[in-house]
Design brief:
Layout: H1 9-21, H2 25-34, E1 45-52, E2 60-68, E3 73-78, H3 86-98, E4 102-107, H4 114-127
Parallel strand pairs: 3-4
Antiparallel strand pairs: 1-2, 2-3
Length: 132
């Protein structure tokens, strides 16, 4: 029988740490508005790993741009790369919804009107029940 090591969560932690260091300009703009409970007291985490369909040897995970646990909501910023990843985005969204998560997608271009984006996020969160 193979000698299989248990999955090391530090790998995921290191991956998201690196992503936090290399945030896109759009992510930086939105994070400035979401951090420190600035949006109506909601706490957001950035570059947050979401585990799905795993076991002790391997965990699959997605990294959410921004995550609010109180509302089990993911905010995804869609830049130009998402124009070519429709199939993957659909798969990812389906898996996340199966976990009971709510997803709001925002195109990077929308950040030009930041107040409108913040209103859109807040309105979305108000429609989602609190996580019990």
């Amino acid at each position: 029988m193979e000698n299989l090591e248990k999955f090391d969560f530090r790998k995921i932690k290191n991956h998201v740490k690196e992503l936090r260091k290399r945030m896109t300009e759009a992510e930086k703009i939105l994070w400035k508005e979401l951090r420190g409970r600035r949006l109506s007291g909601y706490k957001f985490l950035r570059q947050h790993p979401i585990l799905y369909k795993g076991n002790l040897i391997r965990y699959n995970y997605f990294v959410a741009d921004f995550y609010c646990d109180r509302k089990k909501t993911i905010i995804e910023l869609d830049g130009p790369i998402h124009d070519t990843t429709n199939e993957y985005d659909s798969f990812r969204e389906s898996e996340l919804k199966d976990l009971g998560l709510h997803i709001l997608r925002i195109r990077n271009e929308e950040l030009v009107e930041l107040n409108v984006v913040l209103w859109k996020i807040e309105s979305f969160l108000l429609q989602v029940p609190d996580n019990k």
